[in-house]
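Lab manual, section 2.4: Encoding a predicted structure.

Procedure: take the sequence of the chain (54 residues), apply the prediction step described in section 2.3, and record the output as structure tokens. A sample record is shown.
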Amino acid sequence: MNLLLIIVAVIAVVLLVTGGFVQSLNFLIWVGIVLAIIAVIIFLARVITGRRGV
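Recorded output:
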């Protein structure tokens, strides 16, 4: 019975860590998308106004 309890505990910890990684990766994907959109907006603003970046 103790072996079964240890196996269930290990599986629970692995699932908890995996869920945390998925949540953090999902958050980082959204941060990346927002930063990409901001970069495109800044690029378009520079192209439209004719300013050259350094």
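Check your result against the sample. The mean pLDDT is 85.
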